[in-house]
Amino acid sequence: MPINAAMKFSMEGKKSNIDGFCEDLSHTGIRFTTRQALKKGESVEIELNTKDLKFKPLKAAVEVLRVELADDRYRVAGTIIDYK
Questions:
Q1: How many Å apart are CA 25 and CA 18, to the nearest integer?
Q2: Cα 24–Cα 27–Cα 56 angle in degrees, nearest 5
Q3: 67-82: buried (b, 16+ CB within 10 Å) or exposed (e) per residue?
Q4: Domain that holds residue 14
Q5: How far apart are CA 15 and CA 53, in angstroms?
């Protein structure tokens, strides 16, 4: 499902939040863009800002499946492994 929503995420074991932008979301996966380089297999915790959308805030653990560099941003595809 296409979604245009701001989000934040943190790298596993770190507390700092990094900005991202969610482009697509399903029950089992997510695609987002960010300026932070990520690697396949890394785990991140995401928090999707849903105040302008029609559903509750989303917090989840995500495993990175694919990373592509597009312009000056990274396009990240991941699988949702746990909802928080």
A1: 19
A2: 80
A3: beeeeeebebbbebee
A4: 2-83
A5: 26
Can you say whether the dihedral through the CA atoms of 81, 26, 56, 74 is positive or negative? positive
Quote the pTM value: 0.90
Q: What is the pLDDT of residues 52-69, one digit of tens each?
A: 667 778 899 999 999 999
Q: Which tokens go with 14? A: 């770190």
The candidate with the shortest Cα–Cα distance to 67, out of 78, 82, 56, is 78
- The count of domains in the chain is 1
- CA-based nearest residue to 25, from 69, 13, 71, 54: 54
